[in-house]
UniProtKB/TrEMBL annotation:
Annotated Gene Ontology cellular component terms: endoplasmic reticulum membrane
Membrane-topology annotation of the record: Single-pass type II membrane protein
UniProt keyword annotations, A-Z: Dioxygenase, Iron, Metal-binding, Oxidoreductase, Signal-anchor, Transmembrane
Cell compartments where the protein resides: Endoplasmic reticulum membrane
Matches recorded under InterPro entries: P4HA-like (IPR045054), Pro_4_hyd_alph (IPR006620)
Primary location: endoplasmic reticulum
Lineage of the organism: Eukaryota, Viridiplantae, Streptophyta, Embryophyta, Tracheophyta
Domain Prolyl 4-hydroxylase alpha subunit intervals: 35-231
Keyword hit for Iron-sulfur: no
Matching PANTHER family: PROLYL 4-HYDROXYLASE ALPHA SUBUNIT (PTHR10869), PROLYL 4-HYDROXYLASE ALPHA SUBUNIT DOMAIN-CONTAINING PROTEIN (PTHR10869:SF236)
Name under which the protein is recorded: Prolyl 4-hydroxylase alpha subunit domain-containing protein
Amino acid sequence: MGERREAGTKKQTIASRWPLIKSKQNLQITRLKDKDLFTVQNFFTSAESEAFINAAESIGFVNQGSLGPTKGEAYRDNDRISVNDPVLAETIWESGLKKLFSDIKIRGKVAVGLNPNIRFYRYKVGQRFGRHIDASVDLGEGKRTHYTLLIYLSGGFKPKAKNYLNSDTDSSSELLAGGETVFYSSRNVVVAEVAPTEGVALLHVHGEKCLLHEARNVTKGVKYVFRSDVAFA
């Protein structure tokens, strides 16, 4: 399948207040494939996740599609926001990710921060992102991204009363079902399957070593995701 298409990005200057991000202590890591693929439990608190959802809804999502496999692109149907915010990227990096990446090197280079291009994804019932790989991005000044960062803002095992700003997409009374992020080996065998859970961060290497992966169809509720990339220099 083709690499993920970032064309049509909606970049905006916003006045919305992001939540105050607390410093993360004693983060629990679950390695799914050595250092190439791992999750971090409770990276965002419930309050932080809800605040990001409300801020994103106040900006307004735009549907992101693709031309499809016949045109060399992965099937994609989700709603998306993109904002350039170096301060937010640095805040989240310093809150705990910097320490997690202190012993990870790629070709002698070390992790130096997050891509300031922050994206928010929303998947409603029936929406999904087909099998694809994530491309490495040259950020200039010797910096290049090598890891994808996804932080699930919704999902889990118990319903919560959340009042998202857009009532048309408020499925707070419903548990989130579906929407798993699934990784495949070169032989098309499932390597890992991660169910969206509020506050959990998923990190995986991308670029040349990126595993083929997909975001499965959401069958109930609304899946919200915070997205950035880890840069090395």
